[in-house]
Amino acid sequence: MAIIAILLEPASLLLTTVLILCLWWMSTRRPPGLPPGPGPALPLLGHLHLLDKDPRPKFREWRRQYGDVFSLYMGGRLVVVLNGYHVIKEALVKHADAFSDRPNTFAFEICRDRGITGTSGVKFKEQRKVSLEILRHLGMGKNVLAERIQEEVAQYIKALHSHQGQPVDLREMTKASISNNICSILFGRRFEYDDPEFTRYLAMVADTLKSASGTALLNFFPWLKHLPGDLFNFKKVLSMTHLIETTFLRPQLDNHILNHTNGNTSDFIHAYIVEIQKRRDSGQATSVDEDNLQQLIRDFFFAGTETTATAICWALVYILHRPEVQDKCYKEIQRVVGTENAPSMLHKQKLAYVEATVMEHGLACDVNFQGHVLPKDTMVLPFLESVLHDSELWENPLSFRPERFIGPDGKLTKPDEFIPFSTGRRLCVGESLARMELFLYLATMIQHFRFLPPEDGQLPSLEGVLGLTHSPKPFHIRAVPRTQTLKL
C-alpha cells in the first residue's frame, strides 16, 4: 500500500496543480465583451501588483495601449476605467441611470448609505434635490452668498497682513478661512482662526483624508480589516471620523434642533429641519430625516473644508513658479476694480485673466457601452485627468497657462471639456460655491499682496501628496503688502 501511495502522490500533486490553475484561469479571465486590459490577473491580487501608490501614470500608459475604455482586476473586483471627454460624457450624462450609482465598496460603507456621498438610486436623488434647493435658498450662486464670502475674505486678508511679509505656511490658515464659509452655510456661524477647538478639528479632517488613502486596499480585500493592528489605517479613519462627528458636528445639530423655531431657514440645518417637518406632516415616505441630515453635515464639512483650500494653495504654488501670471492678474485688477474697493462677483466677467487663472487650476445594471458589455456592480472609474491633461485638447497641458482660457477677443472662454468638478448626476453639489470662493479669494489676495518665495528663493515643489485629495507639499511663502492703502 505504501508503494501505491508513493506512485499516486505525483499524480495527485499534478491533478491538484491543474485544478488550481483551472480555477485561477476561470476566476481571472475576462468574460466575452469586456473592454481590453493588461494580461492575466494574479490570484487574489488581480492586477494590483502592476500599480504603484499613484496609479495615474499606469492608467495613462494603459490608455495609450488599450484605448479610452479599458478594464483590470483589483483583487477579485472588476474595474473599468473611462478616459477622454466624449467617453466620460457619454457614460455620466447619456447613460446616467446606469453609471450614477455608488459602487459597493468599503469606503462608501463608512457613510452607512446616508447623505449624498455614499448613496445611490432614489435616496441619492432625493438627498441631492433637497440639498440643492436649500443651498439655492441660502444664496448659492447669488450675490447674497458672495457677500458673506467677501466678509470672510476680509478676515483672511487681515490675518495675512499680520504676518508682515514674513515667510509663513498658509495652508492651515487658508483651510480655516475656507471652512468658515461652509460653517456659515451649515451652522450660521464662523470660528476664529486661532480657536483651539476649531483648529484641532481641522487638523483631524486633514489627517483623516490623508490616512483614508491607506484604506483603499480594503475596497478590494475587505477581510484585511480583521487583521491585528491597523496596517491600513482602517481603525484610525473610523475613530477620527466618529470623533469629529460626535464631538463637533453632532453638537451643532443638537443645538439647532433644541433652538429651532417654526419656519426658520436661516442656515442649512434649520432649512433641512423644516423639510423634515413638511414630510412628516404630509405622511409621505421619504429619506429626508435626521440621520441623513447628520451625514450631509459631515459630507459638506469635509468637502467644503479641504478641496477649495487645497486649490488655493496650488494656485499659490504655481504663481510662485510663474510670477508673470500674478503680475498680469494684478494689472487687470487695477484696471477693472482699482485699489480702493474689494473685487466682487460683479467684476467677474471683466476680470477674464483672473478667472482664467482660477480655471487653470458602480453600475446599477448590466449595460452595453462603447461596444462592450459591462456587468452589474462593475466599479467604474471616470479618469478626469485624461480629459484635463489631454494634449489633444490642451496645448502643453501640464504647463500653468491661464491664457488657454482667453479667446482671440480677449474674453474668457470655457470649453465644454473643462470638467474639474466631473459631470452628469455626480457633478459636485458645491461647484458654484467653490468657483465663487476661488475667484473672490485669489482676486482679493493678489489685489492686496505680491506673493514671493522666502528670501532664499526656494520654490515649492510641483509634486503633490496623493491622498483623497492631491495636496501640495509643505511650503513657505511671503505675502508682501502692496504699496497702496486699500479698504477692507
UniProtKB/TrEMBL annotation:
Question: What GO molecular function annotation could you give as one example from this UniProt entry?
Answer: metal ion binding
State the PANTHER family in the record.
CYTOCHROME P450 306A1, CYTOCHROME P450 508A4-RELATED
InterPro entries assigned: Cyt_P450, Cyt_P450_CS, Cyt_P450_E_grp-I, Cyt_P450_sf, Cytochrome_P450_fam2
User: What is the protein's name according to its record?
Assistant: Cytochrome P450
Pfam families noted in UniProt: p450
For this protein, the parts annotated as crossing the membrane are: 7-26
**What family does the Swiss-Prot or TrEMBL record give for this protein?**
Belongs to the cytochrome P450 family.
Question: Which positions are annotated as binding heme?
Answer: 428
Show the coiled coil region(s).
Answer: none
